[in-house]
Write a structure and sequence with these properties.
Elements: E1 2-4, E2 8-10, H1 14-22, E3 35-42, E4 45-50, E5 56-64, E6 68-73, E7 80-90, E8 93-102, H2 106-128
Antiparallel strand pairs: 1-8, 2-8, 3-4, 4-5, 5-6, 6-7, 7-8
Protein name: Carbon monoxide dehydrogenase subunit G
Length: 130
Amino acid sequence: MKLNSNKVTVQKSGAELCEFLSDVKNFEQLMPESINKFELIRDNAFVFGLKGMPEIALEIKEVNSPNEVILGAISDKIPFTLTTKVDEIDDSSCKAEFLFDGQFNTMMSMMIKGPITKFIATLSENLGKL
């Protein structure tokens, strides 16, 4: 299952945005208001919980500054990646979008498509407010 958020303009260079997203504690600023839990579990990993969804642990898999930051699920039970694609506009701004790519059976995909779409839309919206 592949989902994309809207592209948003961020008032940071691509390198600055990648550096911001490479520090996982900054993801707390991007989370929806319905967040129940946000906890750092390692320098490159965090766990979060939203109302009505199970807790999910993510870790940084790869950083290709200034173009992308890839997070991945720590658990094999819910295999997915969350990639932030960054397109630099100029020295002080860029466009960014979140790409969700998960390997789920049809039933699971139907159940999580709505919540995940809303989740990445909120991440994107909050990223645009930085």
